Amino acid sequence: MIKTMFDCIIIGAGEAGAAAALAAARNKIKVLVLDREARGLPAFDGEQGESKGSSEVVAVEKNIVSFSVETKSGKVFYGRSIIIATGKNGGELETITAKELSGNIKVDANMATSVEGVFAIGGCNNALDGDETVKTGEGAKAALAVAEYLKGSK
Fold first, then answer.
1. Which one of 30, 75, 142, 145 has the minimum C-beta count within 10 Å?
2. Which of 13, 23, 1 is nearest to 148 (CA)?
3. Which residues pair with 79 in a beta bridge?
4. Which residues form a coiled coil (predicted)?
């Protein structure tokens, strides 16, 4: 079986996830978007990326040079980096990163978490729930950080 390796897997297709996906695609990053709801990013599907609605993520595992992401249906996808954009109710997925006392995922100024290659944006990393402008900005910022990370990891 041939494994497709994505440059970045974005988990969550809300405002932040969608913004990250579009910014990543513009930067020639091969991206896969997974979301538990079929939100539909039809204009996004193409050479630079794919969107898989109704694909709830149940596990993320860090391997030697990549990550494996398993969905509830049992499908496994592989990526060189991960962007978590699951909102405040991201569930167990967020256990792969360090959290603050508030329950938010800790990130640095570039949206990077304590796990190399994992970034977090939107409601899962801050208390600005409902602020679409901030979420969209974080999505674009994380995509640029992923581009820099990928340059260094090749």
1. 75
2. 23
3. 6, 67
4. none
Counting every residue written for the chain, the total comes to 154
Q: Give the C-alpha separation, 91 to 102, whole Å.
A: 15
Domains of the chain: 5-153 (3.50.50.60)
Predicted TM-score (pTM) of the model is: 0.85
Dihedral of the alpha carbons of 81, 144, 48, 132, in degrees to the nearest 10 = 100
Read off the pLDDT of residues 3-25 as tens digits, 9 standing for 90 and up.
Answer: 789 999 999 888 888 889 999 98
Q: Which tokens go with 77?
A: 């996808």
pLDDT band at 29; cut points 50, 70, 90: very high
Tokens 């910014």 sit on residue? 23
108 vs 92: CA distance, rounded Å? 21
